[in-house]
Write a structure and sequence with these properties.
InterPro entries (chain A): Auxin_biosynth/cation_transpt, FAD/NAD-bd_sf
Number of strands of chain A: 22
Structural class of chain B: alpha/beta
Number of strands of chain B: 30
Oligomer: heterodimer
Radius of gyration of chain A: 32 Å
Structural class of chain A: alpha/beta
Distance between the termini of chain A: 84 Å
Function (chain A): Probable flavoprotein which may function in endoplasmic reticulum associated degradation (ERAD). May bind non-native proteins in the endoplasmic reticulum and target them to the ubiquitination machinery for subsequent degradation.
Helix content of chain A: 25-40%
Protein name (chain B): Thioredoxin domain containing 16
Largest sheet of chain A: 7 strands, mixed
Largest sheet of chain B: 5 strands, mixed
Organism (chain B): Prolemur simus
Number of helices of chain B: 28
InterPro entries (chain B): Thioredoxin-like_sf, Thioredoxin_domain, TXNDC16, TXNDC16_2nd, TXNDC16_3rd, TXNDC16_N
Number of helices of chain A: 20
Amino acid sequence: MGLSAAAPLWGPPGLLLTIALHPALSVRPAKAPASPHRDYCVLGAGPAGLQMAYFLQRAGRDYAVFERAPGPGSFFTRYPRHRKLISINKRFTGKANAEFNLRHDWNSLLSHDPQLLFRHYSQAYFPDARDMVRYLGDFADRLGLHVLYNTTITYVTLDKDRQAWNGHYFILTDQTGQAYQCSVLLVATGLSVPNQVNFPGSEYVEGYESVSVDPEDFVGQNVLILGRGNSAFETAENILGVTNFIHMLSRSRVRLSWATHYVGDLRAINNGLLDTYQLKSLDGLLESDLTDLAILKDREGKFHVTLKFFLEENNTNQSADSITLPEDNHDNFALRVAYDRVIRCLGWNFDFTIFNKSLRLNSGNPFDTKYPLIRASYESKGSRGLFILGTASHSVDYRRSAGGFIHGFRYTARAVHRLLEYRHHGVAWPSTELPITQLTSSIIRRVNEASGLYQMFSVLADVVLLKENVTAFEYLEEFPMLMLPQLETLTGRKARHGLFVVNMEYGKNFSGPDKDVFFHDRSVGHTEDAWQSNFLHPVIYYYRQLPTEQEVTFRPAHWPLPRPAAIHHIVEDFLTDWTAPVGHILPLRRFLENCLDTDLRSFYAESCFLFALTRQKLPPFCQQGYLRMQGLASTESLRQHGVESRLLRDYAAMGRHLEDSSQRPGNRGPVGAPPDPGPPVQSLDSNKEEL
Amino acid sequence: MSPSFNVFRVGISFVITCIFYKSTVDSLPELSPQKYFSTLQTGKASLAYFCQADSPSTSVFLEELNKAVGPLQDYGISVAKVNCVKEEMSRYCGKEKDSMKAYLFRGNILLREFPADTLFDVNAIVAHVLFALLFNEVKYITTLEDLQNIENALKGKENIVFSYVRAIGIPEHRAVMEAAFVYGTIYQFVLTTEIALLESIGSEDIEYAHLYFFHCKLVLDLTQQCRRTLMEQPLTTLNIHLFIKIMKAPLLTEVAEDPQQVSTVHLQLGLPLVFIVSQQATYEADRRTAEWVAWRLLGKAGVLLLLRDSLEVNIPQHANVVFKRAEKGVPLEFLVLHDVESVISHVENNMHIEEILEDEDDDMEDPDMDVQDDEVAETVYRDRKRQLPLELTVELTEETFNVTVMASDSLVLFYAGWQAVSMAFLQSYIDVAIKLKGTSTMLLTRVNCADWSGVCTKQNVTEFPVVKMYKEGRNPVSYAGMLGTEDLLKFIQLNRISCPVIITSVQEAEEYLSGELYKDLISYSRVSVLGLFSPTMTTAKEDFTEAGKHLKGYVITGIYSEEDVLILSNKYAATLPALLLARHEEGKIESILLASTHVQDIVQIITNALLGTFPEITVENLPTYLRLQKPLLILFSDGSINPQYEKAILTLAKLKYLDKFTPCWLNLKNTPVGRGILQAYFDLVPPLPLLVLVNLHSGGQVFAFPSDQAITELNLVSWLKKLEAGLENPITILPGQEWKPPLPAYDFLSMMDAASQHPTRKVPECMKEIDVQESDKEQHEDKSATRKQPIEALRIKHWNRSNWFKEAEKSFRRDKELFSQGS
């Protein structure tokens, strides 16, 4: 079925390729009949898969997406079980800037089509999961993405071939045994395997994925929930009002996302149980390592919590009544009550099963099976040409940034696409080259509107590559910052004359599960204290050359990048609007000036004219503007302000003054003496003391 | 605070502490009355404080007395504390404990007795003691009459140092007394505390103290008043000393050596020298002038008469004053000054600048990095509350952009609301809209890229501001001219016609050349260009058309290639392919052979043809002339140029004398900034017009045509020849330094380092001790000042930048420094 639907799509290119490959094949006759080839194969038509497909489609690349379900976003057809997405759908920001608005839109994918914004799909601030399914379906359809639905890839292996882009092809086999040959494999299968902890009695535990969502089923029950993530709290929230009480058990303390600034931690929308716990209701939270536990079922079908240790002591398959319970020794043991239900909400793991060992996707560490092993470029450490996208790529910034979520990985997918464009098609990382006078403005523009920097803070950063003699620069957006040492080979751009990295950061000691984020005096207002800013704010690093891999690896603790030659913090802003002329732009300009050892001020044409005739050298602004006949004329009103501020001189008035004095009889006053004995022009001639 | 900074401060404090200890080495001897009187030597002065033996051993008075031991010893006065024990009572020992007094003896003769409260501090002690000892040298007066009597008595004999201090015993009084101790035998010191007396001799702005030098020795005529020189510096011992030294120096010195080598006491004391250049012929007059100048500059500069005739080194012919600064290594300034006032103002202005430079240096130590020094940013910010008539332009959005530019010919300004340069230009843009209101078919629109980022990105706008012209959906043309009203207006107007215009008949061509065809446009394009081609010259025509498109909006171009083109080429003596240039202002039509037909070459030919032979240089057109890379020969004129000068220069240009230069003139009425340029060239600007040669592109020398010569062809040629031969000295050399950052940036990296090191920082043992001392001392110093809260608590967020906050913060910062030392 899936194949027949896909046939028209696969037909001609497959044929063409077979012909093209013919000479190669004939040399190696052992080859089975050629399987259809794609340059790019994307596994999974979830948000990350579709996002990647969009970029490949726009670039005109040869690609296909494989999806086992009949439509995109199948995860969202079942999850979250209680149907409420916790990614915010902020429809209004008071701003028209579409790029800025993406900072507060956590659900949309990136595209050129303004209709494909999530706000057109739901009015709810926390939207329903069904709207996400509808949105993803529209995204795939409207953009005409090549998705093979109902195609379950059951096996992925490597086929070494020196002709291949990466020295090997990825061979994908579907449920019908059809194989596909891919030059690059982009895995966007998400985390699909529920995380299970094995302990005696774990068979009595119901999983989040299958537990009833009908509160009626929990009326008057004692419920124990294992886990303390959003799914655990979401489950608790749903039944909070009908149970006798809910106990929640997890290895470590609850992490509140408002304290950690990590959207994967417990969100306020789900934290009703915290409220009732701390307001002396019967519900409660406990910390213990689940692997030490055991659950026993008594004759009445109720569950008791005990320690694995006691079970091993007895070493027999006895009934619950005869096994030691903790309360036998400590009669105030917290979990001594019998439970009607035990529910497991322990999160998800990546499905490694379909990948052949030769792909070396996991670390081999049995305790580390949540995520595949990847680099900061999202490429697998085990196989070149295999990239992990979407939720499964979150190991790069787990518990730090947004790479595990739509509003984060939509940008990392773009970054991966840009890397691939250069690697396989020679299309260098997109950049804008501008004269150095535009440097301050370029940075200010980006820190005020860029959504990728804002969402993927401290993972993706803008890079400014300086040109020779600091006359111009290239601006690269959203580069995976830990790949800086390889920037030249990954992007095709040269970084020979120093660079700036523009990042967004929270204060170093601001985020953490036990941090009080509402402490008095938490916000910094003075530019001199900008480095102590706590809230997300722009930080600019200056390097004289690209940092080496070693420097990146051994960077100081809690630093996103190695130690730079100089650093600048733009002071945090309550409105995240960093356009204040003196508070934000001026200190940034001074920083850039001092890194580049030049003067980046702007001047009116009249000042440039004066400089042109009274100095041998001109400031960059005059060189790049005025001397090219693009000087900036001032208007009467601006000129007046300039004179008032003493930054400009009123030469016309000076002329009038001289005339007046020379007309006075008998007074042959010195011509050209300054008319105003007050302080001289403040700064146009600030170089004067160096004369 | 960075650790290094702390160390630095510790070092300074340590030195201060050492000085403090050294000065207390000579401690106050404690003697019994008998012992004390036995030590008194004949002729030697001694100050003794008699006190009861059982009185407290320390008191504020004793502390101050202790401090006075050293200074008084310097003047040969010994100090002692005499303990009155019961066994040997002295008559100087008072009856009651609190009526103890100090006594001043010379030998064993009592000179004065002082109640302890008059000697309130060390200054008072020194001042009173010296005042008592120098009774004759320092005359204390209370009336103007006293002063006149003394003045009259000393005319022709001795000079007077007259000073006013607000009270006896204050530091200024001590300074005067210390000076009197040194100079009392040479000059008569006169002292008063009467402010009325000072007012009566015409002093203004009287504060704590004033000091005058009365030049009475020179006065021979008793009816004449003594000249007075006011000391302008604050009254300190050192300043008085320097002042008197300068008064002692000869008023006027004659020299006949290289001014570079001359040094006088003035120079050593940091004052500049003024050389009045003299020739034998005018010696007498020059000397009188020089004396007059010297009197005026007394205390401000040294004045010398430089005898040019017997001088070996060459000084510029025209210079009549040479100014030598006190700073080493600063070149001499050769000046042409026409009267005494200008000499004096030159000196005073330069002193003034010096002071300001010092101030600026102070600023460098604590620069206020938060003060805007970008003129565009500051002016736009100050203007932010003015309402612009923005409604005269159409604001485009994501939705309306495409529809609008497709529907009508539109000019689009892409700007960003937060970017100063584009906001400055927005004002000019609105001015254009005002000027065009209701007359133009061109729609003036704007896009704020801060709001409509997507539109700007799609239109490939990556910097601000950008102006593009959209015509009938055709490829937009970016405006590349000056960001100002006039040039943009010209661009819009000239874009009304196609470029090149296709001319279809000889008659039309003639109308085109005469300016009739586009009457309303020729004010925007001083030259109309007509390309003449025979119909078969296809490539040449294409290239010319291409070049015309390039120049669209900047100059009017037309093309004629009908069969009868020879009529025109014959009339204007042009060989095809040719360009005809009609200069409308001059009413001339030139022809140029189009040898090369490369597009770029044609553009270049036309651009060059637009340049004038002797243009008026303006802010707008200077860059086009700078491109020629030749030295500029600029005639500065206040108002329109004298036709004779113009004729002279045009003649020379015609005769190819000026080929190496770009001759031009500058009208100060149209380009007032020219005054700023003249100021940079001349310290004191001679009367206009001025002809100046500026070698901008190699070396930056500026030469001035002698202002006493008339600008005639002959004089010019000989001057240029001298220049070429290297016989002229430049009047100045333009500074060649690079543009460096105007101010430093915050060093956040060090601040972060300091913060991260702080908790683990170990203070070395030896430094700890110093720290303790220091913090003791600090507490002492700080005792009187009200302690403020620790800095961190005070660092309130400032949502608004207001001045009071800045001020307050400065004082907080000082506190912070104090605090960090102790830590």
